[in-house]
Design a protein that fits this description.
The protein is globular, with a radius of gyration of 22 Å. Residues about 1-10 have low confidence and may be disordered. The strands form three sheets. It has a seven-stranded mixed β-sheet with strand order 4-10-9-8-7-5-6, with helices on both faces. It has a four-stranded mixed β-sheet with strand order 1-2-3-13. It has 13 helices and 15 strands. By secondary structure, it is α/β, with parallel strands linked by helices. The chain folds into two domains: about 15-65 and about 320-410, Aspartate Aminotransferase, domain 1, CATH 3.90.1150.10; about 70-315, Aspartate Aminotransferase, domain 2, CATH 3.40.640.10. The chain has helices spanning about 10-25, 60, 70-80, 95-105, 120-135, 160, 165-170, 190-195, 220-230, 300-315, 320-335, 365-375, 395-410; strands at about 40, 45-50, 55, 110-115, 145-150, 180-185, 200-205, 235-240, 260-265, 275-280, 345-350, 350-355, 375, 380, 385-390. The chain binds pyridoxal-5'-phosphate. Pyridoxal-5'-phosphate binds near residues 122, 205, 209 and 241. Pyridoxal-5'-phosphate binds near residues 118, 154, 155 and 266.
Length: about 400
């Protein structure tokens, strides 16, 4: 270690600027984070490098549903990390089968395809749906179509942004993957009309997260389900954000009493400690895949499986799903009672809440900044909506404290 290159300014004072400067100097600029450098997390709280504590109301976009550094998940992670982390699927490991069994029993699925990131789960589902279309439904080769919704967010790969309707996510990234049709979200009639003889799948989010927590009209999912069944089309629900307790149910589809053919989960599948995603199949759709046709070096690795098993277990054992429903009601009702000219609408389900501001309020970002100054972290989606999604372990007292902060900045 060389003392010559030690910074001249005291470390504590230099810390924040140093991290931001390092990112600016060496990093791709594909994010515009709030100026806070976090170094530790526990439950609903995170701490910055100066020791300031914040209530996390983003939960890493719902990846940290179980709370930061959940002790039982971290224990599963470290125990498995010391034993075996990666075998590739060239060999079996003693965690994968158990993970399959537990997630299938919990979600009522028949089969699982393990991947790592959410976007990979989406890509996998698209591939499987196309193959099913050609081999089972009999769609002519190369003509498979998949219907998606306006305002969708399913990830960042080329094929996924090919059917994004957000210019920022798409511009400059073509040529795009063909075979997608976009219909308005929440309009079952438009979706039905878009289904043709070559349609193999419909891909939707039960509640659109990135679009600003858009809840579709009641009965929408049930009608979509019915249309898919009638026209022999696979219903793919992207529950990467809505799933695993976030909306007060294990899967958001339960609120409408429907079952997807393929359900995509990710994010909180690991409690935010390791990238783990999965395609869950309720129908023989995954059966179209044969050895060698799809895969991932890290998909189904023993570390991921051990972590995911515990992440699912604590979600259920510790009553987090029920708590999300209870605290979600408390938070949403509290937000609706805040008397503020700035608020246009409070909407959501469970602890997935969007607070939309009037355009005259000057943008959601400045409220995010004001909340940060009061020790609460949350982020805008698009210009005028604050997304509020704390870990599912939040208590009533913490909800009430958060409401005080929202009331203060919205006054
Ligand atoms: C986050 C998200 C994804 C993409 O997941 P990554 O892990 O970032 O690739 C896909 N769909 C939805 C609904 C998401 O919220």
């Amino acid at each position: 270690m060389s003392l010559d290159i030690a910074p001249a300014v005291p470390a504590a004072a230099a810390r924040r600027t140093d991290f931001a400067a390092l990112e600016a100097e060496y990093g791709a600029r594909n994010y515009k984070p709030f100026e806070v450098v976090l170094t530790r997390g526990e439950g609903v709280f995170v701490w910055d490098v100066d020791g300031v504590r914040y209530l996390d109301c983003l939960s890493a976009y719902s990846a940290v549903n179980q709370g930061h550094c959940h002790p039982r998940i971290i224990e599963a992670l470290t125990a498995q990390a010391q034993r075996l982390t990666l075998t590739s699927r060239a060999f079996r490991n003693d965690q994968l089968g158990l993970f399959y069994e537990e997630i299938c029993q919990l979600t009522g699925s028949h089969a699982v395809l393990p991947m790592n990131t959410g976007a990979e789960a989406v890509e996998s589902a698209l591939k499987v749906a196309r193959k099913w279309g050609y081999e089972v439904k009999g769609v002519p080769s190369g003509l498979a179509e998949i219907v998606v919704c306006d305002g969708n967010f399913h990830g960042r790969t080329v094929s996924v942004v090919s059917f994004s309707t957000d210019p920022t996510a798409r511009s400059g990234f073509g040529p795009f993957t063909p075979g997608f049709r976009v219909v308005p979200f929440g309009d079952a009639a438009a979706l039905e009309a878009a289904i043709g003889p070559n349609t193999v799948a419909v891909l939707i989010e039960p509640i659109q997260g990135e679009a600003g927590v858009i809840v579709p009209p009641r009965g929408y999912l049930a009608r979509v389900r019915e249309a898919c069944t009638r026209q022999d089309v696979i219903l793919i629900l992207d529950e990467i954000q809505t799933g695993l307790g976030r909306t007060g149910a294990l899967l958001a589809e339960a609120h409408e009493g429907v079952e997807a053919d393929l359900t995509l989960v990710g994010k909180a599948l690991s409690g935010g400690v390791h990238p783990v995603s999965a395609v869950l199949s309720n129908r023989e759709v995954l059966g179209v895949l044969n050895p060698g046709e799809h895969g991932s070096t890290f998909g189904g690795n023993p570390l991921a499986c051990a972590v995911a098993r515990m992440a699912l277990k604590v979600l259920v054992d510790e009553g987090m799903i029920e708590n999300a429903a209870r605290q979600g009601r408390r938070l949403m009702e509290g937000l609706r009672q805040i008397a503020s000219d700035h608020v246009r609408e409070v909407r959501g389900r469970g602890l997935m809440i969007g607070l939309e501001l009037h355009p005259e309020a000057g943008g959601a970002r400045r409220f995010g900044e004001a909340l940060k100054a009061r020790g609460l972290l949350c982020k805008e989606t698009h210009d005028h909506t604050l997304r509020i999604a704390p870990p599912l372990v939040i208590t009533s007292d913490q909800v009430d404290w958060a409401l005080e902060q929202f009331a203060a900045v919205l006054a």
